[in-house]
Write a structure and sequence with these properties.
binds 3-phosphoglyceric acid; Rossmann fold; 2 domains; binds magnesium ion; binds adenosine-5'-diphosphate; 15 strands
Length: 396
């Protein structure tokens, strides 16, 4: 059992560095599409406000390369101002004397949001000198960023090694809710994977083949697998360096008697066409690019979903942000909601889609984690949780 924020006592006037995952889905113009991750972070923030701590919030947003105005956390500060019963401040820096001075100046029970931590490359490098500069700002470190707890970064992992620490209420809730799926998976267990993070998630497919009976692959992930199985994909994005690995996964699945379903038709565009109108095709040739699963694939996937007793879904099955390519994902979301299976949907974009389909009340468990949720189900824990101190050590 990990120490939680509620085990920290005498917080009045103490500076608590709270790592959250405000990595919300954005449209092409940078507009926030869904605020679930912010809303889910509020209980811990509010608890710390009630304890009269000074709350320093740190988060990443997207995968920026240096400063990118569209990935600023400033719009999130505006959401927090409305959602919290206290003053919310914002700084476009994450360490240094100016930040220290600002923390001194804010009142107890107030909140200071720092700028996107990934504007600094030291974050993902888990640079401990960088972490030390941030640790020097506060008294405690609380990690509530379940969605990124699979990544050993400076403010998700490094800070826990430098400061007295605890997990937050969202982290505690996520772990508790997912425990059943780890300890007692129901079969047939259908794992549905899509989305855009092919390189980051392809290895999880192999790992989840241990417990899942069927793996449904859609989204951008599908095209690397289709090439691996000898199917032409036109100009759809394929991760060449992962094709051999995808082939191994297909072979291993066959050996283990597990089923892997890939799209059999697609909603695509022709890159050379003057008007890039979406159309359905079973064959992907020339300069065709697929952005959604087609009608036959929808039926194939839905049939499999009907027979499931447990479903784990991460990653939209198409470029759902564009209505022309949203249908596959929305129909699959509805099919999961209608099935009798215990359903777990994780990921910033996936949860956003479930809400778009208006079926959030029919999913058993909506998790804020995407890759984190898959890794947790596969391993039963995550490095940024393991690094937090056990409760017992702090018994008085
Ligand atoms: P989650 O946030 O649920 O973990 P990801 O971040 O892995 O999901 O993936 C979401 C992204 O994947 C979306 O931006 C979506 O547009 C993209 N995507 C899904 N399918 C395709 C596709 N066929 N082509 C291009 N992008 C896709
Ligand atoms: C997520 O959206 O899955 C988390 O916020 C982690 O983001 P990342 O995959 O860019 O590390
Ligand atoms: Mg995402």
């Amino acid at each position: 059992m990990k120490r939680t924020v509620k085990d920290l006592v005498n917080l009045e006037g103490k500076v608590v560095i709270l790592r959250v995952d405000f990595n919300v889905p954005l449209d092409d113009g940078g507009k926030i599409l869904d605020t679930t991750r912010i809303v889910q972070s509020l209980p811990t923030i509010k608890y710390l406000i009630e304890q009269k701590a000074k709350v320093v919030l740190i988060s990443h947003l997207g995968r920026p390369e240096g400063f990118e105005i569209r990935k600023s956390l400033w719009p999130i500060a505006l959401i927090l101002i409305k959602a919290l019963p206290t003053s919310v401040h914002f700084m476009n820096k994450v360490y240094g004397d100016e930040v220290k001075k600002r923390i001194q100046d804010i009142g107890n029970g107030e909140v200071l949001l720092l700028e996107n931590i990934r504007f600094y490359k030291e974050e993902i490098e888990c640079d401990m000198e960088f972490a030390k500069k941030i640790a020097s700002l506060g008294d405690y470190f609380v990690n509530d960023a379940f969605g990124v707890a699979h990544r050993k970064h400076a403010t998700t992992y490094g800070l826990a090694r430098l400061m007295p620490n605890a997990i937050g209420l969202l982290m505690e809730k996520e772990v508790g809710a997912l425990r059943g799926a780890v300890d007692d998976p129901k079969h047939p267990f259908v794992f549905i994977i899509g989305g855009g993070k092919v390189q980051g998630k392809i290895n999880l497919i192999l790992k989840l083949l241990n417990s899942a009976d069927t793996v449904i692959i859609g989204g951008a992930m599908a095209y690397t697998f289709l090439v691996a199985s000898g199917v032409a994909v036109g100009e759809s994005k394929v991760y060449d360096e992962n094709v051999a690995y995808a082939r191994d996964i297909l072979d291993i699945a066959k050996e283990k008697g597990k089923k892997i379903l890939l799209p059999i038709d697609h909603v695509c565009i022709k890159q050379s066409a003057k008007r890039k109108k979406a159309f359905v095709s079973e064959e992907m040739v020339d300069d065709m690019i697929a952005f959604d699963i087609g009608p036959k694939t929808r039926e194939l996937f839905k049939e499999e979903i009907k027979g499931a007793k447990q479903i784990l879904w991460n990653g939209p099955l198409g470029k759902y942000e564009n209505p022309a390519f949203a249908r596959g994902t929305l129909e699959i979301a509805k099919a999961i909601a209608e099935s009798e299976a215990y359903s777990i949907v994780g990921g910033g974009d996936s949860v956003s889609v479930v809400k778009m389909a208006k079926v959030e009340n029919k999913i058993n468990l909506l998790s804020t984690g995407g890759g984190a949720t898959l890794k947790f189900i596969e391993q039963g824990s995550l490095p940024c949780i393991d690094v937090i101190q056990d409760k017992i050590l702090f018994k008085r």
